[in-house]
Each structure stands twice: as structure tokens, then as C-alpha cells.
Amino acid sequence: MSTNQFPKQCPNCLKRYGDATRPWCKKCDFSKVFGEWTSGDEAIDELIKMTQNRQGNYDDNFLEWIPFDRIRDKQKVGQGGYGTVYSAEWIDGKRYWDQSTRARQPCKVALKCLNSGTESHQIFIEEVRSHYEVHNTSFMSNSFPMYGLSQDPDTKEYLIVMPFVENGNLRSFLNKNFHVADWEFKLQLLYSIAFRLSHIHSRNMVHRDLHGGNILVMIDKDGNGRGEITDFGLCRSTADNVEEGDVFGVLPYIAPEVLKGGTHTLASDIYAFGVIMCEMTTGQSAFCDRAHDVSLLIDILNGTQPKILDDTPKEYYQLAKRCLDADPDNRPGAWELRNFFSNRYVSKSVPPEYRVADERKKDLLPQGSHQIYHTDAIYTSRNLSFTKSVNQLKIANRNQDSSQINLQVPDDF
Ligand SMILES: Nc1ncnc2c1ncn2[C@@H]1O[C@H](COP(=O)(O)OP(=O)(O)O)[C@@H](O)[C@H]1O
Ligand SMILES: [Mg+2]
Fold this sequence. Notes:
The protein is an alpha+beta fold. Helices cover 32% and strands 14% of the residues. Strand 7 and strand 8 form a beta hairpin.
């Protein structure tokens, strides 16, 4: 394609340049092309500009400052442990390159703000930075990028603006649709989750809060499923010296070594993936029938694992069990998981034992929603401060010769 077909003129310095997809010349600051703006917060301005300076193309994955008057119909749709999520319409819509018009269309977006708290602004910035870093690769840039940041002038809350996912999170999706989700679909979801996890891990980052509420389900027009990992609030580089004190997260997904006071590692993310694999067999959230309290904590430390349906194909059962191994060194890596699922799904060769399991499931499971949640089963991330108390207790009857801990629940819990 001759560059003469696309004579370009920088709207700032008016010099001509020849790249067909670039709407500004590299010498000029983005703001001179996109207009002057400020978020009113120096750290946020710097973060947005950092993403802009790293990119060269108009439709690349960089953040925009989105004035709140370009957003309308804000409505609450979700609440996690740290933030509130809204749906809204972004009047300008996402950037995409069109040589003649650079046309942008209004689109539905999700807005996420963090609940107020002393450190919430710093956590917000960390979450945006991690989300950006994870998606700043050619593989991930189109999967689930943020569009930009905004601020609600009434509440003063800063907001992440990102694609809205109609099917919501994996936990609620399985709750409603498990009886119709066959293994082909579930293997597609697991493949895409493992694929994304392998990219997070290849960037030496640990998600640290992987669970069904932090995976969003997308279904394409052919009915194929995809799981997007979201909520990078606790995600950190393995190089960061995260001070491990309190344990944060959703109890059933936290690896025993972390519950014992250890650090989150790539292997502790794999443990959480193993819990999700179990849930894919039963359609039930792990330990949904019991309180997520110190008693469950002690049982997990003593080796209790989430239910996995007996009828599960053997190779799948064995892989899930390896992910849940008490010894993190025995767990598979994310690339192994990705290869396992890719061999069964991408090649469209779902092995026959999964088809057989689909047939049997029809007899085993009643139609419709079948989960009964214990009122103290808590699936939003939180500070599990009771883990500290248990670890601080002189674990009276610790068996020195084994990694097992034999604890009774003390009366004062
Ligand atoms: N982009 C999105 N589209 C649709 N729903 C979303 C989106 N992001 C989050 N949600 C919903 O909001 C819930 C909480 O979001 P999350 O980012 O996990 O917040 P928290 O940090 O508080 O856990 C999710 O479990 C999901 O149901
Ligand atoms: Mg969450």
C-alpha cells in the first residue's frame, strides 16, 4: 500500500508523515492531538500519559481521560469486596481507525470505582497499572482492555471505563446456566482462562484473587465461550515485595500455604484455578453449603478440598487434583494448563469421555438453579483477619513430622 494514498498531516505541527494508521506524528504530544485535559490528580495524569507515550497507533491499547459529561445512564450492576461496578453509555465510544472518518460509535461500558478508604486511591492506581500491564501485549490487547479513566464530579470517585460484559461473572453464570453448559463450552472457558493466566504469569505477575466473581463470561455469535480475568486490584509483580500480613481474598480459593501466612506465588494462582476446575464439574461454588469461617479454614489446612463430581473424566480429575496439591511445587504451571485445554478444545477434539459425562449429567442434575448457599458463605474478597489469629495461635498439636496441621476450633472463636 503506497503511503501516498494516505497523506497525513499532524494536526499539531502540520508536518506530513506517511504511516497509514497513525493520526499524529511521533514528535508531538498526544494531548496536542486529543486536546488538553487533566484528571485533577497528578498520579493519574502520569499513568494515562505513560500508556499514551508507549503506543504509536490511534487504535492501540492506551488510556484516554474521559470527561464525565461524555458518559450517561450510570446504573449499578455489581458489587465486589473492594469496588462498585456500573453499566453506562460512553457517548464517544471506543477508538477505531477509519481512514476517512475516524468514526466512533456510542457504546455500553462498565464503570468501576473503589469503595472509599484511606488507601483506596493508591489501590485504584495499582489496579489500573496492573490491568494495563497485563493487557499491553499483542495477545491480550484486544481481549479486555480498559478504555480510559473518568471521575464522577458528584461523588469525586475515579472510575475505570472498560467493556461491559452482558453475561456477568462466572459464578453467577454457572449458577444460572450449569444445566445447559456442556463440556465443550466449559473446556472453551477453561482454555481461555488458562490462556490469560499464562500471560499474566509470563509477565511475572500474580493475580492473587482468582475466583469466579473475577472472571467475566463472554459468548460469541456462534455460542463459543470465553472467560476474561478481571479485577486486578490485588495483582502484583513477583518482584514486588508485598508485605504479607493479613490475607485478602475469598477463602475457598486461597492456597493453604497462603492461609498459613506465606506469600502469594504463581502456584497459589494455580490452586485457585484448580478450585474453579472443581466448580466446573458440580456447577456449585466451592464450599457453598458451609460458613466461610475459621472452621472451614482449619479444615482446608487439614486437607479438605472442594467437591469434584465423581463422574468427571479421569484426566481432568487428575489435573484438578494436581492444581490443588498441598505442595505448590507439585502443581502444574499455567502453560501446562493452557496446553491441556488447547489440545481438547482448540483442535475441536473434545474427547469422547467428556461427551459421555455430558449425557450422564442430564440424569444426575436437576434442571435449573440448584445451589443452596449457606448464609455465611462469602464470595466477595475481604480481609480474612481470622487467618492471622489461627496462625498466631500456638498450633498446639502441630505434628512436626508432617505438613498436616491437626487443629480443633477453639471455643473462643
Ligand atoms: N466489565 C464488566 N462488565 C459487567 N460486569 C462486571 C464488569 N466488571 C465487573 N463486573 C461485575 O461486578 C462484580 C465486581 O467487580 P470486581 O471488578 O470484581 O470488583 P471488586 O474489586 O470489588 O471485587 C463482578 O463480579 C461482576 O459481576
Ligand atoms: Mg472482584
